[in-house]
User: Fold these one by one.
Assistant:
Number 1:
Amino acid sequence: MSGAGSNAAALLDAAAEPGFGASVVAVGADRHSADGLALARHAGVETFTVPFADYDDRGDWNAALSERLDAYRPDLVVSAGFMRILGAEVLERHTVINIHPALLPAFPGAHAVRDALAYGVRITGATVHLVDSGVDTGPVIDQAAVRVEPDDDTASLHERIKSVERRMLVEVVGRLAREGWSVQGRQVRLGGPRQ
Ligand code: GRF
């Protein structure tokens, strides 16, 4: 994650429950200042940072991130409010899912809530999807709708979407961990870094 980390915190809480089926082996960020890192430390989970600002080259940063991820041998990498585009260095080695605050394919990108409001849609929502090499283009795993209220601004709408995101992300990760899943005909491959 990159910021507040409320989605990551929801996963940490869920993983603490017996029967969830998954544990969080580490929480990582692209900047030292990400508030969510403190939440993870408080939960007794290992944290790491691969600061984007420390690298001149996007490929080098992706390679460093991939190497850090490899060390934890995660079955699944969750981009939970992670505001960077992941490159092939990560995606060829790890299965990654992302949470996005809109009903994709509408409103991809970093300003989804603002863009939906500006467009004037009455219904927006949240999407969990597999990450591919595009920006918010991977196969959809789950979606939930959120109604736009007449007096909404970006902050109020985003808060309501985030409470839906947290529930959906926890539900999807738990389901993947317990049952495995095929997404749009493609088997979600869990089981650690590819050799
Ligand atoms: C979420 O709305 C996520 O979809 C978006 O950024 C927000 C992160 O929130 N990419 P948090 O850091 O999990 O609280």
Note: The chain has a mean pLDDT of 94.
Number 2:
Amino acid sequence: MRISVIGCGYLGAVHASAMVELGHDVVGVDVDGAKIAQLAAAKPPFFEPGLPEILTSASASGRLRFSTDIADAADATVHFVAVGTPQTRDGRAADLSYVDAAIEGLLPFLKPGDLVVGKSTVPVGTAARLASVIAGRGNGATLAWNPEFLREGYAVRDTIEPDRLVYGVADERAAAVLDEVYAAALAAGTPRIVTDYATAELVKVSANAFLATKISFINAMAEIAEATGADVTQLADALGHDTRIGRRFLNAGVGFGGGCLPKDIRAFTARAEELGRGESVVFLKEVDAINLRQRQRVVDRAIEALGGSVHGRKIVVLGVTFKPESDDVRDSPALDVAVQLKGLGADVVATDPQGIENARLRHPQLSYEPDLDLALRDADLVVLVTEWRPYRDLDPVRVGASVRARTIIDARNVLDPETWRAAGWHYRGMGRASGASVLS
Ligand code: UDX
């Protein structure tokens, strides 16, 4: 099939390359000329494991092109809209201007039988509105909503082998077209659920709301665990054995960040309020509040660890991205903690395997040191805020020899407290028993 992907950011660039893997001819379109030039040279403008490989093979096959001119989408019969829906200035609702502009841009080129497929995360009701915009033009094209559930760090796999496909459609033909697009994934056994527009839109926002709730739930338990001397990681393991609950997304720590969960729960709340149903999701405000509190708890812990003030003390912040295997620093809890500590007068040195460039653009006031060993030298305090593999694998004995004081705050609960304590470190996790050896 001939496919266009409008918007070649994170979602679109991965989707365009993955569609070639699934056997289609694809043109990726974006208004950002620099981004298109990089993609056309098979160089992803961001870090995503596996993307360079599929981008290179897709480009070499001659079945993937990139363009800044939306007219190049005219040959395609299926048009994915994968543009961003950032937070509006007031920090609540979703800004739909890019989605609206993408549809407007496509309208002159749509032909009878074309299918426009929304992938962006949008407030419930958007698809129905856009379907009538398209129908109003009378060019015989229709709309489907096919939300994307990909995780950064696993985006390629999540796109080629998704857990499920959700089609929000207004007619059977649209579902048949999507079946053809995803034939390879369906043949591999991917379940597909065909719904109306509103349900498809709601699946996406409620999935993210649920994941955010799960994380804030365990972080709330971490707060209680701390007050009682209990250990939240053992609690999560025990809870996780209940198959109704499951262990995933029960890692307590500094909380969630990134370009999706925080903004999506706020946009969902705003939309529910617009619909007169604000009270149904009022708990999401608490989910957000618990989440933001974790960042403060890490900062407070740092102050406490340094005897009441961080002023003038060297604090090494391990990680600036919102999670490992990504260079994304959007709403990153790690960066927020680093900035807060700096604001309190600490001599903060932040390090990260991939995120320094993006972090520097946002927070040039921080000091960055890409070399982990150099960063750690003479530290008064180490704070692990993003659980990259090199930080999980740190040898407490070796690191202990180069720091000024052996104090570590493990804000992701990924280190073994016993090993670190045995190497002479003062170890503090989040909601973990604070000293006494735990029988296993
Ligand atoms: C999320 C959804 O998982 C994905 O389905 C959706 O399409 C986009 O939003 P992503 O933002 O890539 O994906 O990251 P995710 O892996 O969900 O992690 C989100 C945040 O939660 C990260 O900051 C992560 O560190 C944090 N997290 C995750 C926890 O704090 N604890 C956990 O147990 C799991």
Note: The radius of gyration is 23 Å.
